[in-house]
Design a protein that fits this description.
Number of strands: 0
Radius of gyration: 18 Å
Largest sheet: none
Distance between the termini: 39 Å
Number of helices: 5
Structural class: mainly alpha
Shape: globular
């Protein structure tokens, strides 16, 4: 059941990644995919054309991190290895952003970073909590 949850959430991320308009999907339940067999790969490395000071941009990128935070949570329920969670989470982040180039979206290495921050945040928070629990238990058992 946990594996199914990871797969379904991964499919949801991929759909949101590749649909032409996320807003149309959210508000009108319309999926539209526009295949581009010859993407401009140089856009993947373009860091200059983003409105970093726009509240909409910041909110959208926070969503990137939150989705991959949740994806990492679900992955962690399947495996107990953080190396696996980090590797799969960041690899999936790269794959979804790279796939956007083929679906007439703006896939960017910078978005891979935002997604990876979500993965790293989950791993860090979980490790801090579990280490704190073990330290607390060790302290009170003495």
């Amino acid at each position: 059941m946990r594996v199914l949850a990871v797969l379904l959430f991964g499919v949801l991320i991929f759909i949101l990644t590749c649909t032409k308009s996320v807003q149309d999907f959210i508000f009108y339940r319309q999926l539209y995919f526009q295949w581009n067999p010859h993407p401009d790969f140089s856009k993947f490395l373009d860091f200059s054309s983003y409105p970093f000071d726009s509240p909409t941009y910041v909110f959208q990128k926070m969503g990137h991190g939150m989705f991959f935070f949740l994806f990492s949570f679900l992955l962690r329920r399947v495996t107990y290895t953080f190396k696996f969670v980090f590797t799969i989470g960041c690899s999936f982040a790269f794959a979804t952003e790279f796939a956007q180039l083929f679906f007439s979206r703006t896939g960017c290495l910078l978005d891979v970073l935002y997604d990876s921050v979500g993965v790293l945040s989950y791993c860090s928070i979980f490790l801090i909590i579990t280490k704190g629990q073990y330290a607390y238990k060790d302290f009170h058992d003495k």
